[in-house]
Specification:
The protein is of the alpha/beta class. About 40% of the residues lie in helices and about 15% in strands. It has 14 helices and 17 strands. Bound molecules: ligand 7TS.
Length: about 400
Amino acid sequence: MNINAIREQFPILHQEINGHPLVYLDSAASSQKPRSVIDAVKRYYELDNANVHRGVHTLGSRATDAYEGAREKVAKLLNAGAPEQIIFTRGTTTGLNLVASSYARSVCKEGDEIVITPMEHHSNLIPWQQAAKATGATLKYIPMQPDGTISLEDVEKTITPQTKVVSITYVSNVLGLINPIKEITRIAHRNGAIMVVDGAQSTPHMKIDLQDLDVDFYAFSGHKMCGPTGIGALYGKKSLLNNMEPIEYGGEMIDFVDLYESTWKEIPYRFEGGTPIIAGAVGLGAAIDFLQEIGLDEIDQHERRLATYAYEKLSSLEGITLYGPKENRVGLVTFNLEDVHPHDVATVLDSKGIAVRAGHHCCQPLMRWLNVSATARASFYLYNTENDIDRLADALLQTKEFFGHAIG
Ligand code: 7TS
């Protein structure tokens, strides 16, 4: 990977923030966008814009081709099989809510179980809390080891024949660890449960093969993988989607409407009521082209190198606590400096042009498990370099000094 050439393609990176060259270390919250994605959205609006799946006019069919072409790109990226198994959504949150509201609420009943983990992002936790409350099912948690990982032994103990749904994040947005999704899926299926995966932090960073993983649902967001905000997708197995009720009713999702009864289109359209996010899908398609041209395996390796470098470099600072396992982690490092609130850390770093996130990262139960109220987090992507991490480490030293605790 030629990082300089890659960085050249991201206009936003080439600016000064508070008098310093920008170091963007918040890609887990939202990634930056390459020129090709920005141009694809612009070109779509300048040349092809129209509504999809309706008019017979030329612009309408161009827009439809662009939108459906993006669906095919998503299906190929994830090795998802038939493109109708891809439903465009607003992002991971919308995808997970769709499964919890449509599938879980119709399948689960009292005595059934929904299994998740304490490391889940709120968008893979609250939908299941609500589905459990609505159906009388029990919400169960697979316990975590001291380093945050989950053991297959605990997975075996937690998932039972009463379990109807298991929903787990592939990659933790706080701990940077990768969960053994393929093995958990096998255990879920053996017990008759379906497997749902939160792919928000995995899709941008590693090669995903849904047919190999054999998961039943998989949700992700475009904006974390060089695409625009407001677009994402949910993969679902055809056999499940075909039997699910829509959760949004209106235009474009119907087959036949009468005064008192209506019927729905085939999948995926029955889940895409209203005018869809056409320009977003076009941008996501361009983002997929961009990532695939570089290669997801190369991106993955680059980020793992950065994560190892960052973990080692930061752990040598006195008074720092790093969260999550040392091994097998993806490109992010979550940490706290002794006696300095993470919001203060992020504020001082911003004054030096370095963007990191501070807070609970939409993982309040995980924060309680870690026994902290908040942390700081530096997250990396294909455009970050060792130099960015050196700048972070230097700035953290200065932060510590600024707050009157010189690091030895
Ligand atoms: N799941 C995980 C694991 C996430 O990291 C996020 C967003 C979501 C779901 C929700 O994605 P959305 O696109 O629907 O909002 N995570 C973060 C983060 O770590 N910092 O800001 C957003």
